[in-house]
Amino acid sequence: MNEEAAPRILSTGEATLLIDSSGTIIAWSDGAHALLGYRASEMVGRPIGDLLASQPPEIARHGWALRAAFKATVLSKHRGGYRMDLVVHGQPLSSASGDVLWLFTANSLDSRSPEPVLGQKGGTGEQHWARRRLHILNQAGVRIGTTLGLSRTAEELAEVATDCFADFATVDLLDAVRHGDDIDAFHTAGSDGLVTFRRTAQRSVLPGCPEAVISVGGEDTYPVGSPPGLALATGRGSRHLVDDACLRWWAAGVPSRVRSVRTYGMHSMMMVPLRARGVPLGLAMFFRHQTLEPFGEDDLLMAEELGARAAVCIDNARRYARERTTALTLQRSLLPQRAPEQTAVDVATRYLPAGSRAGVGGDWYDVIPLSGARVALVAGDVVGHGLQASATMGRLRTAVRTLADVDLAPDELLTQLDDVVLRLESDEARLDSDQESSATGETIATCVYVVYDPVSRRCAMASAGHLPPAIVSPDGSVRFCDLPAGPPLGLGGLPFEAVEFDVPEGSLLVLYTDGLVERPDHDLDTGLSVMCQILGVPLQSLEETCDLLLEGLLPERPFDDVALLLARTRGLGSGQVASWDLSADPSIVSEARRNACDQLVGWGLDDAVFTTELIVSELVTNAIRYGGSRIQLRLIRDTTLICEVSDTSSTAPHMRRARTYDEGGRGLLLVAQLTDRWGSRQTPDGKVIWAEQVLHAPTPEPAH
Fold first, then answer.
1. Rounded-to-5 percentages of helix, strand, coil across the chain
2. Are 671 and 615 in contact (CB under 8 A)?
3. What is the spatial distance between Cα 40 and Cα 51, in angstroms, rounded to a whole number?
4. How far is it, in rounded angstroms, from Cα 445 to Cα 684?
5. What is the mean pLDDT of residues 571-597?
6. Contact 233, 224 (CB under 8 A)
7. 394 Cα distance to chain centroid
8. pLDDT tens for each residue of 468-499
9. What is the DSSP letter of 629?
């Protein structure tokens, strides 16, 4: 049938076609030609099924005798098989034979189009496809790059492509991109002459992708001289018919790819390089198997524009991933790598960075051995995220360890730490001023500092705006410490207050940051209540308790950094500690030496007797000469042998170089040479001078 003889209906811009009861097209309008691109001579006399992307389920069940409206998907000839949602209304018409005729009309066409096309008089196919290209690119601007996740950005590109012009889309990225590494713009191939990609996303218009030759995360390689390799090197896309010549390079050595092509009838493909700022990132490939028409030149131009926009978003995600990895590496390197050797507490710790959008923060924890077998437990949080927060955290952690070595009380330590934060802020402000930067800002942090003594089984703690630690008693009861919050670090000029209380052996101390208990979907009290419920469950393993707290309190991706420190207290028995009250009389020195020697022999530490005699003699003599009237000698047998002498004087000793004819000044030098560590710490009643000796394990007797 020629075009002039073809029957027409309503010679207007409306798309209308008439179908008989057998499903054959018997009339075709001018509007259908302008919109869909097919002439009447091409379509009249053909089954309507040739125009539909798939047979509607209503027709599959009832045939063309159905008298109800339904929605179908038709194929356009313009610019290569663009699918359009056509709302079809069936209307029985009178005919000479009495058969049911279908009048196909559309109230709306292509719900994805920016405006209705049908019913617009004077509309042309060129105008429609110009609007279509603009609409797809607008969609890409809105839908691609909604997150800084690399994989999600690739998935968004595949989704836009399959929603708009492709039946199947894949996005493959170079391995260096996935790891956030820098990429050489000129060397993307390996020594074997192959370019290696990693499948990052794929999507199909079918329910599920075609038979996956390469699953997401899988590896795909192409020779440098193949079309994918050339596209990556030159930055220009290409389109191909999937014929034998195409399969020779695309599916060479991959039988499953050939099988998938033939099973699903893939007949046309495009490949578009993903490049941003002159750097190759990967390759996007688009296929058609449901759409009858192959890709056209305009499709390739649009795909290249789509790939260029998506590549910028992917590169932004890559750069963010690299910065996040750097910050996370810095953060983890600044945290304790392993728990130090000490016997005061058993410890379990966790650190979790925030989700990708928030970035790495400044949360930290620490376990610091102190003199006298004591231990300091620390948790802190620097306000903010990124490299700056991580660097500030590292400085504060170093400052806390330095101040802890001086054996300051918790409230005094926080006062000194507050001054450190103020100096850091002042230095950064001065540096920003010299560099004419406007990025100045206050450095604010919170911190809680806890000291536990396994001899007295007492805790002393102070807080700088931090959440109070939780304490789980041996009987299973849970409570939060009644601890004055104190001001955050960085405000300056405000006092801190410490509290001290008894802690039974076997109690659990829980230090944490606010990221563990605060979430946007519930308030702080709810998080603390859930924590109490979890801690109330009797458990033996600290690691298991850590895992239960994280699982019960955190979503899959935390909104903020989380630092968690669990410490189960232990005590030193009476058989590990010996003490003697001494009078301030020089004659008592020999008695002190004799008591210490007898105790060491009782402990089986005969090898340490001679050294300990000298240490006791020097420390007790100094206490009698420079201290007050009340003197105490204490020996502690732990992983080290600790000798302590306390008095009521607040004057701290210091080591100096004795001159040739000086009578004194050599005692502390002798103590320093004989011991592993020595020092002093202030107490409410005076001071304590202490010295530690390493205990060497006895040499086993040789086997006979």
1. 35, 25, 40
2. yes
3. 13
4. 29
5. 90
6. yes
7. 19
8. 999 999 998 999 999 988 899 988 778 899 99
9. S
